[in-house]
């Protein structure tokens, strides 16, 4: 029994934490932006990321590699701003209208459907765009940053 506990303890100690480079790559794969800074704090990395819509700080768990938090620290584009002051409402999810506008900036056509989805801690819109004489498209948009994550063409 003691041997089994010792061996199990050795297995746990062999699991190495996610490196700063691995955390950087993980964030770069999920968001198409410019990583400005990576700082290690306790059991997480704080990664500062610049996107077209603003600057964000992401917290990446060093043990799991999962993104635990995403906070907008400044905003370049203000789709969800306070009308009177112009101040951004931090961490507010874009509206469906914002998602439709962003999708139509990338793909010409008519918006057919918009769904809000969540996967692996990431919230995003899937915007279906119908086109007349060519393939329809599904535009995946980050629901917080407004960043276009992908465009999939359908028959």
Automatic annotation (TrEMBL):
InterPro entries: PepSY. Residues 94-151 form the PepSY domain. This is PepSY domain-containing protein.
């Amino acid at each position: 029994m003691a041997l089994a506990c010792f061996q199990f303890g050795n297995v746990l100690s062999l699991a190495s934490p996610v490196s700063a480079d691995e955390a950087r790559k993980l964030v770069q794969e999920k968001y198409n932006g410019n990583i400005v800074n990576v700082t290690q704090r306790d059991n997480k990395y704080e990664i500062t990321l610049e996107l077209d819509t603003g600057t964000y700080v992401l917290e990446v768990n060093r043990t799991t590699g999962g993104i635990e938090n995403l906070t907008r620290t400044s905003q370049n584009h203000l789709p969800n701003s306070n009308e009177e002051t112009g101040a951004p409402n931090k961490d507010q999810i874009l509206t469906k209208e914002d998602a439709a506008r962003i999708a139509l900036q990338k793909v010409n056509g008519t918006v057919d459907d918009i769904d809000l989805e969540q996967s692996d801690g990431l919230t995003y819109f899937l915007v279906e765009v119908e086109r007349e004489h060519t393939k329809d498209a599904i535009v995946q948009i980050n629901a917080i940053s407004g960043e276009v994550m992908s465009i999939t063409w359908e028959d």
